């Protein structure tokens, strides 16, 4: 194997392991629990595991840690599989499950009991917690800790056979109740859960805890490098203890910093609270940091992967500015999004000297960054819609758009000069009048004159009505979890995180596909929402055109 030049500390460790013969291949895994939908923090773990496996010509398993049937379901599993595929990763023909190994785990637990290193304990969960001790005080040994091997084997079998009720007893490892790491103080290995499993149904009524199962799954699958976030660092000594006592294949665990983003929560519990209590419209709400929510908002898999590449892989926790994710979106969408014209706050523009029934067509670029996108023809007539903000009765200094006597360019079309306007009974402008230069089509004039203002428009005679969903950050504070008692993070919700506007759009957007990305000229980047109907087309705002993060980069 050719050893690749390392670009982060994980790759440096793997490169060294291959060089010194600790392993002669690389295998990683992405091990989600199927008890919720994936979010962008999970996307970081997905990208790291799959990209590292790819870089070292290895393999990455998709494996579900399905050890708690009370919180898991097939909808989560199918969603996770779909999300991993959408991100562009191939995990082969097989999906792995912890439940595939329940039989092996049970036999390994028996082996530990036979070594005198596990016992059945009849303390309640509350007693186990209270007697565990603290960082400064040792725990108190369970009165059941001295049971004989024979008695423990008999009781464990009765647990498996359903002869005890939930919570009546557990299987615990016998390690050290005074160990400085609380995870080593006789941790629970099995608990009784009389809930049918989505794959094994009623076969089991005892289920392995995450700490007992996780390292064994990696070992059984011959994972070489078990890549985890930093909260598992204190658990590593326990995983190592289990594997060493059993004498089985021993993966190497490496921890990296989890992803934290400003104005966002990435706790499954809190995201579930938001969805269940209707603070958002489900798990795929475009304000949610779930992969499904980000996709629906218009973020592509390339945007998310570019973002994760830019933040890098580190050992230290930090919080990433959400503006960087927006910056990555602009960079990607500027290159790959089609252009279109939409007027979000329309007023009528009437061209006095344009023929009444004439329909003209002007040529518009689909993406000036890439000529391969080609051009489209946009219809033009006597009556157009323009943005209300593009006209002023009393223009401020430096105003380059329309006011009486001012000439501007209608993008892709003609030069027009404002001649007047009309107001309704409330004093609101309803119509702007102008004349056009018929020799200025495409923005070129025979006398070579130029104007400083350019505005967009749509043809009032064949435009289509669309709904714009203008999304902003879900939370006002950079750290929404500053106050966390009784879900106080809800107090930090942004009341203007969603504003809905009715708009006028050029006719070509009738052909837009679900999730298709567009730059609406001067408005921002949008994508077509999956709830759209033929008579009700919806576009979700992905990100503004203005890039605040580029200023941060320049300052740094």
Automatic annotation (TrEMBL):
SUPFAM superfamilies: Nucleotidylyl transferase, Ribosomal protein L25-like. NCBIfam families: glnS, PRK14703.1. Coiled coil: none annotated. Keywords: Aminoacyl-tRNA synthetase, ATP-binding, Cytoplasm, Ligase, Nucleotide-binding, Protein biosynthesis. Residues 454-529 form the tRNA synthetases class I (E and Q) anti-codon binding domain. Pfam families: tRNA-synt_1c, tRNA-synt_1c_C, tRNA-synt_1c_C2. It catalyses: tRNA(Gln) + L-glutamine + ATP = L-glutaminyl-tRNA(Gln) + AMP + diphosphate. GO terms for molecular function: ATP binding; glutamine-tRNA ligase activity. This is Glutamine--tRNA ligase. Residues 26-334 form the Glutamyl/glutaminyl-tRNA synthetase class Ib catalytic domain. Its EC number is 6.1.1.18. Residues 337-437 form the Glutamyl/glutaminyl-tRNA synthetase class Ib anti-codon binding domain. Belongs to the class-I aminoacyl-tRNA synthetase family. GO terms for cellular component: cytosol. GO terms for biological process: glutaminyl-tRNA aminoacylation. The keyword Nucleotide-binding applies.
């Amino acid at each position: 194997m050719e050893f690749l030049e390392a670009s982060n500390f994980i790759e440096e460790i793997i490169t060294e392991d291959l060089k010194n013969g600790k392993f002669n291949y690389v295998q990683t895994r992405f091990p989600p629990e199927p008890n919720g939908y994936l979010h962008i923090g999970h996307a970081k773990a997905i990208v790291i595991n799959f990209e590292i496996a790819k870089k070292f010509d290895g393999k990455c398993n998709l494996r579900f840690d399905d050890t708690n049937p009370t919180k898991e379901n097939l909808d989560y599993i199918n969603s996770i599989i779909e999300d991993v595929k959408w991100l562009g990763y191939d995990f082969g023909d097989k999906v792995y499950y912890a439940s595939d190994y329940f039989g092996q785990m049970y036999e390994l637990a028996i082996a530990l009991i036979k070594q005198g290193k596990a016992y059945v304990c009849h303390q309640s969960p509350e007693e186990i917690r209270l007697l565990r001790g603290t960082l400064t005080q040792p725990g108190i040994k369970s009165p059941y800790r001295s049971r004989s091997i024979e008695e423990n084997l008999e009781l464990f079998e009765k647990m498996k056979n359903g002869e005890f009720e939930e919570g009546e007893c557990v299987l615990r490892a016998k390690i050290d109740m005074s160990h400085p790491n609380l995870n080593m103080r006789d941790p629970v290995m099995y608990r009784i859960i009389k809930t049918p499993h989505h794959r094994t149904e009623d076969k089991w009524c005892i289920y392995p805890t995450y700490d007992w199962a996780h390292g064994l799954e990696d070992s059984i699958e011959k994972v070489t490098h078990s890549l985890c976030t930093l909260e598992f660092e204190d658990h590593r000594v326990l995983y190592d203890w289990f594997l060493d006592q059993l004498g089985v294949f021993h993966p190497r665990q490496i921890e990296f910093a989890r992803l934290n983003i400003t104005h966002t929560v990435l706790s499954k519990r809190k995201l579930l609270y938001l969805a269940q209590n209707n603070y958002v419209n489900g798990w795929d709400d475009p304000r949610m940091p779930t992969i499904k929510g980000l996709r629906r908002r218009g973020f592509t898999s390339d945007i998310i992967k570019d973002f994760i590449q830019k933040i890098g892989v580190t050992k230290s926790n930090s919080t990433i500015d959400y503006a960087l994710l927006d910056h990555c979106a602009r960079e990607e969408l500027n290159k790959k999004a089609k252009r279109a014209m939409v007027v979000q706050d329309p007023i009528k523009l009437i061209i006095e000297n344009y023929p009444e029934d004439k329909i003209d067509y002007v040529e518009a670029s689909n993406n000036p960054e890439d000529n391969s996108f080609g051009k489209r023809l946009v219809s033009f007539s006597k009556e157009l819609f323009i943005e209300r903000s593009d006209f002023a009765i009393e223009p401020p200094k430096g105003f380059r758009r329309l006011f009486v006597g001012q000439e501007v360019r209608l993008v892709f079309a003609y030069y027009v000069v404002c001649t007047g306007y009309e107001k309704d009974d409330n004093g609101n402008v309803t119509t702007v009048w102008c004349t056009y230069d018929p020799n200025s089509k495409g923005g070129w004039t025979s006398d070579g004159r130029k104007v400083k203002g350019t505005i967009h428009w749509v043809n009032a005679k064949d435009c289509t009505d669309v709904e714009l969903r203008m999304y902003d950050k879900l939370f006002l504070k950079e750290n929404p979890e500053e106050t966390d008692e009784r879900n106080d993070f809800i107090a930090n919700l942004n009341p203007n995180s969603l504003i809905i506007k009715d708009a006028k759009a050029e006719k070509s957007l009738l052909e837009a596909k679900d999730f298709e990305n567009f730059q609406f000229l001067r408005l921002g980047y949008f994508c077509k929402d999956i709830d759209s109907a033929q008579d009700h087309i919806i576009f979700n705002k992905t990100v503004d055109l203005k890039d605040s993060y580029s200023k941060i980069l320049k300052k740094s």
